[in-house]
Every structure is written in structure tokens, then in C-alpha cells.
């Protein structure tokens, strides 16, 4: 190891020299020293680059080269170095000619599952930085490239941003292989396709595109591939980078792809005919197309029984509209149309506002902004401090603001309701869009009253109606309007009633339930348990088993 | 997926009916009461029938040219110069209609609910929203109407249902009246409200089944006609004909007196006005859209958004032109007359040209 000072002088010296040589397409020469030098020139000086020379079978000069940070050195010693140094073990003789040596080593000596041979020296540096081991032998113009990549990762944990009451507890981790195995494990179908290819000229991050071949619309898959293929950047560090390159309308506040940490959610989306993308190094999957109504749905809606799921979904929708409209409505009613309130309530409100020096719009804006500041401050704090701070913020500041006459009590109530409402929206990116949109609405309310709120609402709704995600209208299924698709929007009907996949995804295979499953009639649902069926016993059994699902 | 013919019959009907239900809904019962006292609902009904006939004249013609809009095939029927003149007249009509409709809206808004908002701001905001949404294609245009229609119809029907309990049937008798001049004037005025069904000419080239254009319009006119007749029944039945004549906005008064239980909200009319803003928006949006579309076609502009932007100052100036509410209403009546003449006369002319050409073609072959 050189000292840092030597490193510094060497670095400066190198910078003054000409730029490093272009990668040559030249084949391997077979001269070990020359090839090694060419390789090292490309890879540069790295602390974790291991160049190990040894005697192959005690007879031939050989070198192996790998990055110790990407490769498990213990496995290299056990499965590569040991057999190669020890000499032939089986009945096979070492070939006379050096030409057959690589093949001999691959087939009898090394115990590695994946590997290739190459004669092109220019691909070797890239292979090395991906975590592969390169074996060069004196006198052989060919290199053996062995996949020895092993990277330590955190284990599968419960997803932080999408917790569920009832449902799988597994979330994605950073490593792509792990995430794909989480998917394959849930979707054991021969139709499940995973296409992997690197993106990013520098990072070479592997991006996986997943879909179910017999379900997903081929047009959608092609469009997703086309958009991914257009990405030409030097680095993809997270699935969020992909999202920003492929979304339809970058200027819109609303997210047009769905991000999830949950493999089960991804599989559900794939089964509906959507396409998911995963990036190596990111614990998020990107699902397209994403629609507005997905952002207030959670896994719990489906794992819990349908009546409760539907009710909770409606409550979530109310919370969502709270977070968008409540402060604006309050401002316009207070400052423009107080006659809309019942008289006693109006008296109480004006009593509370008596000492407040600001107009209602300013008061609400100040309180809302400070609430946002508080939220942003606590979100990145360690949990122990965050909890304490939010209590200080909410209780102490709120109480003190009212006591000091800065805000009226009802304003504090409104602001609190707004914030809680926005936390009830399950998708963080959609919640933040709605939270930010309430500010223009408050300002419009302060300027034009209810009319301003109405105009703002029309603008937001129109924007949502015009928006598309991968060719699917964002407000589907409300528009273009198919009754069948409304089964999974504001309410969720029982699973055995959703016979078809959503039509707006143009799935190739539309049947969710087997066609043999008889349609359920209302009288069957309403019939008391244990009451005899008027239908044939087979139908009865089918209905019973369905009910027990 | 990229099929251009995406507008279903139901959606076309939604576009037409949400266009028809608009600013006129507030004062409509007064005009009907003025024309026919207690038989106001009957006059309104006759107006619906009248507009039904004029719509049939237009739609059945357009159905014969399922691939083109009216402005394209009229060139082939009556020649480019004459067609251009008529298109220009229609353009002027719709620009003025947009302006005056917005003005009416502004008048109501400032006098009734948004007293502190200057009328210029009210009008300008409404036009601006219409402008911003007029840049989109026809399919998106139909989405907007389809999405808002349930809101509009739902709230109006709810208000009517609530107020129906205070209707005194005595106020509505006698139901029928003899067809005097007043009767016909009233029916004609009622049919003005339905003139915007002209929008079907824009939709036909994008409809899934262009042959169903008439069906769509019929559905729309029946639905919105039913709403208008119900409103007249409710307000005349509630206040009586004589008092309805004295109220500037009888429908609003009706909503105002409809108490909703003990009530968290003291006045239902505010909710009504809020929803009414949407219904006005859909109406203004349609006429604005037609104007922008015609303008783009007429001057061969590259895109519709440019045409729409150029129209904004013009329409705004037109909206500010009438000096007061009464002038604005006089204007709208004149516009209605002109529109009636055009909406009946022009399709008739095209029909004649169509038959002559067809006869000529048959003779030559």
C-alpha cells in the first residue's frame, strides 16, 4: 500500500500525461505480460484490484485478476485457485497443446456455475468491474471469465413506506436478483417474462422489465421498451430515475407511474396486465400505466373482506379531498360567504378570530406553511427525535399560536385536519401532489372566494382528465366510462365478482376467474347461511366453496 | 388503441346535454311564465319538441357524411365561397354566443353570490379556463363533458326533488293553452337553449357509430329537456306564475327556499351556484371550442390552441359590451333569433343542394 502522499504525486503525474488510450479492439496476444499491462492500463490503479499470479498445475505461468470488493475471495480460493494449483484430479490428462487448456480448465478444474471464454481484450475490463474473475494463461490467446460476483446486502425486511395490517411482510431490497426471486416466488408461471439489460453509460445499472406474456398488451410492452431504450444517460441510481425518463407529462404534479416496495403489489399489477420495471440497486419497482384511482388503494383493501375494504377506501377518498379542499373552502366561506354557515357557528368562529391580526387567507397560509415545515423537518429525523419534535410542534406551537392571537382555534383545527387527511393517502407521491395543490387553491380562495375554488377545482380536474399514462387516460375507469371497470374504484366488489381484468389495459387474456365459475346472483349472496339451495347440489357446492374462500 | 373513432353514442349524448344545461337554467322559468302563465311547462315542452325537429334536420344531414364535419362537406355541396361565408357567419354567431353567455354568467355571479368579485375577473377567469381546455382534441373534449355531467344533473335533480314537496298543483292549472302568438314565441325562446346541440357536427367524424348521431342527440335533448321542464314545473308550481314573472332568477329562489333538513348549511342555493359554475363552464367550453375549431378551419391556422388564444380578447370585449343585465338578455334573444334562422336555414339549404346533386348524379349515371 502506498501512502496517500505517494498516491497524490502519482495521480498528478498521470493527469499531466496524455489521456488514457482508447479501448482497443485488439484480440489477446497470448503474451501474458503484454496482455496484463493492457488490462491494467484500462482498469487503472485501484486499491481493491487483485492481480494474483500463480503456476497453473505447477507448470504454466498464469494470472487471475478480480476486484476483491465484488468477489468473495474465500470462494475464489476454494473453487478456482485450489483446483488450478493442485493439478489434475480426475482421470483426464492435461492436454499437450496449450490451445485446449482453457476448455480443459472450464470443463474439469474450476467449480463455478457461470462463465465464458473470450479472445477480445476490450470486454475484459467491463467484465472485471461487474464482479467477474479473469484468468489469463501464458501462451494462450484466450481468457476465461468466471462469474464470481457476490455482494452483501441487507436482508428482506418489512417495507417502510407501505405497511399493511394484513398481507405479506416482504419488501424489496437493493439487489436485483433478490427482488426478481421475490417476484418469481409469487408468480410461478411460465408466462412470466423478465427482460434484463443495462442502462447508464457509467453505472451500467441493470434494468429488468417484467410482464406476463399471455396477459400484458403487446403494444404496452413495446411502448415501455421503446421508452426505456430512449434513455441515454450516464447513471441510473434508482427506479425514480427511470420514472422521470419515461413519464408522459413531466410538468404535471401528479405521478404517472406507480412506485412500490411490495412484491405482492407488483404481482397483482402484472396480473392485471401492467408492466413493472426494477433497477439493480433500488428497492422500488416502477409500475406502468398508473392511474389516479390506484393512489388511494392499498393491499389491505384486497386482503380484508370487501365491505370493510370498500368503506375504508371511501374514508381514504374523503381524507384525500379534505387535504385538497378544506383550507380553501374555509378561507372562502370566512372571507366571502359567511352567510353559508349556521348563525351560531358563525358567531363562534368570529369570536375566535377576534384577536387575529391577519385576513383569513394569510392566517391559513402561514399555518399551512408552518405545518409543511414541521412535516419536512420531522420526516428525516431519527425516529426518537422525530416523535418528540412533532409533539412539540403540534401541541406547543399550535396552542401557543392560538394563545398569542396569531391564529384562531378553528384554523388550527382546519390545518390539522388537512395534514392528517393527506397522511391518510397511501401513495406518498400522490399525497404530496395534492398537498402542494392546496396552496394555489387557498390563494384563489383568498382572491375570488368560492368561485376561485371552483375554477381551481375545474382546472385540476381538467388536467387530470387530459392526462394520460402510457396511452391510458389517467382518470380511467371514470372516463372513458365502462361500467364493468367501476367495480374496483370507489368501492371494491368481492373478488369473485371481478371476473374480468380492467378493460383499459387491453389485456390479451381478459378472464380473471375461470369461465366455469358460475356467475353469482344477488339472491345467492343474500341467502342465509345453511339455507337449502333451490339449485342442483353441484351449484350449491360451488356457491358454498366460493363463500368459504 | 390509437383509433380516432373513440366517442361512444352515450358520450356524445353527454356532450350535448351538458352543453345544453347552462346559464339559462336560472331565468328560464320566468320566460316561460311570461309566455304562458300556468301552462309554462307546456310551452317549455313545445320548445323541446321544436328544437328536437331542428336537431333532426341537422343531424340526419350530417349522418350522411360520417367522415367529415359540416364545414368540410358543405364546401362540396354548395361550393367553397358560399360555404366559407356561412362558416364565417356561424363563427361570428358562436363567438358572440360565448361572450354573451359568459356575460350572463358574470351578472348572476356578481349579483347573487360573489358580490365582492369584480365582474371582469369573473368573466376573464371563466374564459381563461375555457381557453386552456380548448387546446385539446375532440376525444378529450368529450371526456370533460362525460365526467362533469353526472355532477350537474345529479345536483339539479336533487334540488328539484327537494323543492317538489312545496309545489302546489293549483299553480300549474290550466296545463294546456291554445297556440297563440305568445305561445309560439315562448316555445321558440325555449328552443334557443338547445341550439348548442350544433356541437354534434364536430363530434360525428370521431364517433364510434356515426349513424347513431341522431340517437345521441335525441337522448341528450330528452334528458336536458326533461330537466328544463321539471325546473319550470317546480318553480311555477312553488311560486305561482305571477310571482315567477317578478323573480329575476326563479330557479335560484327555488333552491334558496328548499331547506335541507335543519341544515348544517343555512342556504342550499350556494351549493347550487357552485355546481352551476360547472354547468356554465361546460356550456362556455363547448361554444368556445366550436369557435376555435371554426376559426382554425376558416383561416387554415396551424393548430387550434393558436385560434383559441386569438379569440380570448375578442370574446372578452364582446362580453363587456352590453351595458347592463337587461341589455345582455336582449342580446341573447337576438342571438337566439339569428341562431334559429341559421340552424334551420343552413341545413335546409344544404339538404336542397344535397338532393339536387344526388338527382344530378343519378341522371348522369
From TrEMBL, chain A:
Residues 528-549 are annotated as: Disordered. It holds the Pfam family GerA. It comes from the Bacteria. The chain crosses the membrane at residues 314-336, 356-374, 386-406, 412-434, 441-466. Keywords: Membrane, Transmembrane, Transmembrane helix. Belongs to the GerABKA family. PANTHER family: LEUCINE ZIPPER PROTEIN 4, SPORE GERMINATION PROTEIN. This is Spore germination protein. It comes from Paenibacillus phytohabitans.
Amino acid at each position: 500500500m502506498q501512502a496517500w502522499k505517494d498516491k497524490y504525486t502519482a495521480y498528478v503525474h498521470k493527469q499531466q500525461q496524455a489521456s488514457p488510450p482508447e479501448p482497443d479492439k485488439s484480440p489477446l496476444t497470448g503474451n501474458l505480460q503484454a496482455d496484463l499491462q493492457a488490462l491494467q492500463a484500462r482498469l487503472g490503479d485501484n486499491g481493491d484490484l487483485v492481480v494474483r499470479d500463480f503456476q497453473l498445475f505447477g507448470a504454466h505461468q498464469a494470472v487471475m485478476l478480480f476486484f476483491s470488493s465484488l468477489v468473495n475471495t474465500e470462494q475464489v480460493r476454494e473453487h478456482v485457485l485450489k483446483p488450478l494449483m493442485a493439478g489434475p484430479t480426475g482421470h483426464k490428462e492435461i492436454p499437450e497443446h496449450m490451445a485446449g487448456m482453457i476448455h480443459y480448465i472450464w470443463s474439469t478444474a474450476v467449480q463455478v456455475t457461470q462463465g465464458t471464454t473470450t479472445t477480445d481484450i476490450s470486454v475484459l475490463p467491463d467484465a472485471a468491474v461487474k464482479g467477474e474473475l479473469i484468468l489469463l494463461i501464458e501462451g494462450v490467446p484466450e481468457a476465461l471469465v468466471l462469474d464470481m460476483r457476490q455482494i452483501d446486502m441487507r436482508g428482506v425486511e418489512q417495507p417502510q413506506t407501505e405497511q399493511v395490517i394484513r398481507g405479506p411482510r416482504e419488501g424489496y431490497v437493493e439487489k436485483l436478483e433478490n427482488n426478481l426471486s421475490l417476484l418469481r416466488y409469487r408468480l410461478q408461471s411460465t408466462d412470466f417474462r423478465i427482460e434484463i439489460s443495462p442502462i447508464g453509460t457509467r453505472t451500467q445499472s441493470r434494468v429488468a422489465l417484467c410482464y406476463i406474456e399471455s396477459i400484458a398488451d403487446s403494444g404496452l410492452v413495446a411502448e415501455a421498451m421503446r421508452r426505456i431504450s430512449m434513455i441515454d444517460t450516464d447513471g441510473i441510481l434508482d427506479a425514480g430515475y427511470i420514472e422521470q425518463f419515461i413519464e408522459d407529462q413531466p410538468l404535471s404534479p401528479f405521478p404517472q407511474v406507480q412506485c412500490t416496495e411490495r412484491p405482492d403489489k407488483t404481482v397483482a399489477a402484472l396480473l392485471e396486465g401492467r408492466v413493472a420495471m426494477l433497477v439493480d440497486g433500488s428497492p422500488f419497482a416502477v409500475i406502468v400505466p398508473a392511474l389516479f384511482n390506484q393512489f388511494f388503494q392499498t393491499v389491505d383493501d384486497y386482503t380484508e373482506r370487501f365491505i370493510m375494504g370498500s368503506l375504508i377506501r371511501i374514508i381514504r377518498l374523503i381524507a384525500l379531498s379534505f387535504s385538497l379542499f378544506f383550507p380553501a373552502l374555509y378561507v372562502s366561506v370566512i372571507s366571502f360567504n359567511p352567510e353559508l354557515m349556521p348563525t351560531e357557528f358563525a358567531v363562534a368562529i368570529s369570536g375566535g378570530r377576534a384577536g387575529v391580526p391577519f385576513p383569513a387567507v394569510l392566517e391559513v397560509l402561514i399555518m399551512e406553511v408552518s405545518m409543511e415545515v414541521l412535516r419536512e423537518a420531522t420526516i428525516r429525523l431519527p425516529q426518537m427525535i422525530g416523535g418528540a419534535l412533532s409533539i412539540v410542534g403540534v401541541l406547543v406551537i399550535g396552542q401557543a399560536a392560538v394563545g398569542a392571537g396569531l391564529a384562531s382555534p378553528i384554523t388550527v383545527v382546519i390545518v390539522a385536519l388537512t395534514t392528517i387527511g393527506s397522511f391518510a393517502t397511501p401513495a406518498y407521491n400522490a399525497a404530496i401532489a395534492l398537498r402542494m395543490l392546496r396552496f394555489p387553491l387557498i390563494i384563489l380562495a383568498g382572491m375570488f372566494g368560492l368561485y376561485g375554488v371552483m375554477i381551481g377545482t375545474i382546472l385540476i380536474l381538467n388536467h387530470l382528465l387530459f392526462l394520460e399514462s402510457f396511452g391510458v387516460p389517467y382518470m380511467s375507469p371514470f372516463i372513458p366510462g365502462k361500467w364493468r371497470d367501476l367495480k374496483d374504484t370507489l368501492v371494491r366488489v368481492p373478488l369473485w365478482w371481478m371476473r374480468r381484468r380492467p378493460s383499459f389495459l387491453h389485456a390479451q387474456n381478459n378472464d380473471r376467474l375461470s369461465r366455469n365459475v358460475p356467475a353469482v346472483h344477488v339472491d345467492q349472496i343474500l341467502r342465509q347461511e345453511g339455507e337449502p339451495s333451490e339449485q342442483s347440489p353441484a351449484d350449491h357446492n360451488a356457491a358454498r366453496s366460493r363463500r368459504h374462500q | 388503441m390509437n383509433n380516432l373513432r373513440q366517442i361512444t353514442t352515450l358520450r356524445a349524448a353527454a356532450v350535448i346535454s351538458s352543453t345544453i344545461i347552462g346559464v339559462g337554467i336560472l331565468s328560464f322559468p320566468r320566460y316561460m311564465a311570461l309566455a304562458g302563465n300556468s301552462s309554462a311547462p307546456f310551452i317549455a315542452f313545445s320548445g323541446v319538441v321544436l328544437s328536437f325537429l331542428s336537431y333532426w334536420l341537422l343531424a340526419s344531414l350530417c349522418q350522411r357524411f360520417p367522415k367529415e364535419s359540416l364545414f368540410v362537406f358543405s364546401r362540396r355541396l354548395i361550393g367553397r365561397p358560399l360555404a366559407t361565408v356561412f362558416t364565417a357567419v356561424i363563427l361570428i354567431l358562436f363567438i358572440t354566443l360565448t361572450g354573451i353567455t359568459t356575460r350572463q354568467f358574470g351578472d348572476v355571479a356578481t349579483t347573487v353570490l360573489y358580490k365582492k368579485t369584480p365582474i371582469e375577473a369573473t368573466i376573464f377567469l371563466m374564459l381563461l379556463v375555457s381557453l386552456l381546455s380548448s387546446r385539446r382534441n375532440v376525444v378529450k373534449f368529450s371526456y370533460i363533458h362525460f365526467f362533469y355531467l353526472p355532477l350537474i344533473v345529479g345536483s339539479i335533480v336533487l334540488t328539484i326533488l327537494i323543492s317538489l314537496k312545496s309545489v302546489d298543483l293549483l299553480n300549474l292549472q290550466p296545463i294546456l293553452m291554445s297556440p297563440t302568438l305568445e305561445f309560439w314565441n315562448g316555445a321558440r325562446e325555449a328552443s334557443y337553449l338547445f341550439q348548442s346541440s350544433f356541437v354534434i357536427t364536430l363530434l360525428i367524424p370521431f364517433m364510434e357509430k356515426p349513424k347513431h348521431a341522431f340517437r345521441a342527440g335525441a337522448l341528450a335533448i330528452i334528458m336536458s329537456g326533461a330537466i328544463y321542464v321539471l325546473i319550470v314545473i317546480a318553480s311555477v308550481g312553488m311560486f305561482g306564475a305571477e310571482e315567477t314573472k317578478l323573480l329575476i332568477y326563479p330557479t335560484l329562489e327555488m333552491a334558496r327556499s328548499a331547506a335541507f333538513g335543519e341544515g348544517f348549511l343555512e342556504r342550499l342555493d350556494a351549493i347550487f351556484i357552485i355546481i352551476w359554475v360547472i354547468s356554465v363552464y361546460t356550456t362556455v367550453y363547448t361554444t368556445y371550442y366550436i369557435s376555435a375549431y371554426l376559426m382554425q378551419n376558416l383561416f387554415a391556422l396551424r393548430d387550434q390552441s393558436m385560434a383559441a388564444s386569438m379569440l380570448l380578447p375578442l370574446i372578452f370585449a364582446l362580453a363587456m359590451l352590453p351595458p347592463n343585465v337587461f341589455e345582455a338578455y336582449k342580446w341573447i334573444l337576438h342571438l337566439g333569433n339569428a341562431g334559429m334562422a341559421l340552424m334551420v336555414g343552413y341545413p335546409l339549404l344544404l339538404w336542397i343542394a344535397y338532393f339536387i346533386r344526388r338527382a344530378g348524379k343519378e341522371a348522369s349515371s
